[in-house]
Specification:
single chain, alpha/beta, Rossmann fold, 7-stranded mixed beta sheet, 37% helix, O-methyltransferase activity, Cation-dep_OMT, SAM-dependent_MTases_sf
């Protein structure tokens, strides 16, 4: 049985005024943020996991970091973003929230910054950044996750492009999709992780570290 997008959207949890303002800003300025059904599902899983700290790769304007902080009132979040303009907007929005004091925004390339200087381990990592670099992000930061920790990875479906043969993918996106496909094959067969793909939003991959 399949459910329509409209029906799924009708089940999305209500958000406060600041979150809805961020959603509108993202829409107007074409900033990619996590789809609403997917962030609801992610937050429900996080409530079950109850991590005390989360590392996020890809802050954008701080929307998902704030949503996670609201869902987990005892959790601290470190989030990394390389775009200076988005960092500025993220700090602006987060400064207007009660939860913002539990969120640390780091400006810089996630493949270069020293996150360990802030915290040495994270019970959960959320990756939502450059899709063609997912394996490099995973390889760099997964050692910071202890056994039993979880890595959550968004946009695995890439708006349907991941389901196409490479010859049918627009040329300018072929390298990214090739890397994403290779990463998917790699992590689904990785002996150190139990990985499951959830077909919600634009595809959410959940990797439990053994």
């Amino acid at each position: 049985m399949e459910f329509s997008d409209a029906y799924i959207e009708s089940l999305v949890q209500p958000r406060n005024e600041l979150l809805m303002e961020m959603e509108e800003y993202a829409r107007i300025h074409h900033v990619p943020i996590m789809q609403l059904p997917a962030i609801d599902a992610l937050n429900q899983i996080l409530r079950i996991q109850k991590p005390s700290n989360i590392l996020e790769i890809g802050t954008a304007i701080g929307y998902s970091a704030l949503r996670m902080a609201i869902a987990l009132p005892d959790c601290k979040i470190v989030t990394v973003e390389r775009d200076p303009e988005r960092v500025t907007m993220a700090k602006h929005f987060l400064s207007r929230s009660v939860e913002g004091n539990r969120i640390t925004v780091i400006e810089g390339d996630a493949l270069e910054v020293d996150v360990e200087s802030i915290h040495s381990t994270f019970e959960a990592i959320f990756i939502d950044a450059a899709k063609g670099q997912y394996q490099r992000f995973f390889e760099k930061y997964s050692p910071l996750v202890p056994s039993g920790g979880i890595l959550y990875i968004d946009n695995m479906y890439m708006h349907g492009l991941s389901d196409l043969d490479l010859k049918d993918v627009p040329r300018r996106k072929r390298t990214m999709i090739r890397n994403l496909k290779n990463f998917t094959d790699w992590i689904m067969n990785h002996p150190d992780y139990e990985s499951t793909f959830f077909p919600i939003g634009d595809g959410l991959l959940i990797c439990l570290k053994r």
